[in-house]
Amino acid sequence: xxxxxxxxxxxxEPIRYMLSYLGEDFEDNRINDYRKWQTQIKPKMxxxxxxxxxxxxxxxxxxxxxxxxxxxxxxxxxxxxxEDLEIDIIIDTLSDFRSAIWSYYxxxxxxxxxxxxxxxxxxxxxxxxxxxxxIIKVNGYLANGKLSWADIxxxxxxxxxxxxxxxxxxxxxxxxxxxxxxxxxxxxxxxxLDKRPSTEW
Length: 201
Description:
single chain, alpha+beta, Glutaredoxin, Glutathione S-transferase Yfyf (Class Pi), Chain A, domain 2, four-stranded mixed beta sheet, 9 helices, 62% helix, 9% strand, GST_superfamily, glutathione transferase activity, Glutathione-S-Trfase_C-like, Glutathione-S-Trfase_C_sf
């Protein structure tokens, strides 16, 4: 496995977590030169996006699709179609949440950013995190009451979310913190955390 992404956690980290969970050795190739990315690397990407994972000389992209594939390899999927649906619902809801945060964080219109900040921070963020926290509180995990690739994806991307909203999600929501601790205590993931490069997000 060869992973290509920027020198951040971001959308690459869920893939790194999943590969680590599987105990797979992988090349963690990180781009530091933004100009090189724009001029030399981006034009060669399938849709001009990262992360990109190379599997047996085949190049694939899209974090969620890759994590779902690795989840199947790890047997962290549902026992039937309905359970897989429950996992996908969580993942798609997380994507909605991420889109809401992204539209704020990457908004270059400062006036518009000020207008959307209050409803985002006072309504949207507490709504999503409160519901995720309650699901975990009731069921122990995000889907089907058992560990799935959705839990690993969620925990892996939390630091990225926390960076963008400038709040420590894990500290503010007890059940989310407990799930995060549970995922981080998985031996292979703990090994990754101990050796991964230190980045702000």
